[in-house]
Design brief:
With 286 residues, this protein is α/β, with parallel strands linked by helices. Helices cover 39% and strands 23% of the residues.
Length: 286
Amino acid sequence: MREIFSRLEKFEIRMRKAVNSQMNGNFSSIFKGTGLEFADLRTYQYGDDVRTIDWITTAKGHGAFVKIFKEEKEQTVFFLLDVSASQHIGQMGQLKLDRARETCGVLALSALKEGSHVGLYCFSDQKELYLKPEMGIAFAYKFIVKLFALRAQSPKTDLTAAIGFAMNMLKRKSVLIFISDFLDTGYEQNLSALAKKHDLVVIHLYDPREVQLPKLGLIPVSDQESGKTRWINTSSRFFNRKMKEDFEQKKNTLKAICTRYNANYIDISTAEDFVPRLVELFRTRK
């Protein structure tokens, strides 16, 4: 476990250096917005973040107004992490679950170093692990140990239930980092409600073979969650086009929700170095 912790710290240091060199030291930008409480309104000035515009007041026709927030002492960064069976796709050592754990671990270390309270909810179609928000490096070690030792009890996914848990548990506005492959249905309305209430970051994990399979002819493919096997013609142009279209539709739906509610979206492939993608996330939240 010390080896895992050391590897994550190296990733975190690498990410911090990249952010500091590219963004003039604005490393904490990914965690800004946590623990903010509305204080007052003032007229809009050039350069203000459009996300702070109070549209209700502005709509009255007396000019544009932005919300002023004061920072609360207790900031919370909360992780929703999908550990269902569909996360076990990818090459050995590069499963979606491996990327999910690494991404979650690195960002958790960063948040704890920035003085935030950090919490975690790992889920399938049930609660697999819950760590209430705490602070400190000692908690960071506990967080990593629990995260990497976890073995999910259920293979299935229920994103709606996971979102419901977060909505009920988090009373104050928090930075909520949602890590999943989003291979579920019917959760979109609940995700929108989550984005309205919290400062949401969506991290969409995928494996390249979920976008395009190699042309191997007729092969058996097993559904990790249902356990069912079906035969697929991987050489079929229709099948490959439909597979890619389904992925793009899922991606566009998530991006549209994030755009509408000023949330952030990034996708991470199991085949790529995830650290530059996280650096890009910091840049978009500047």
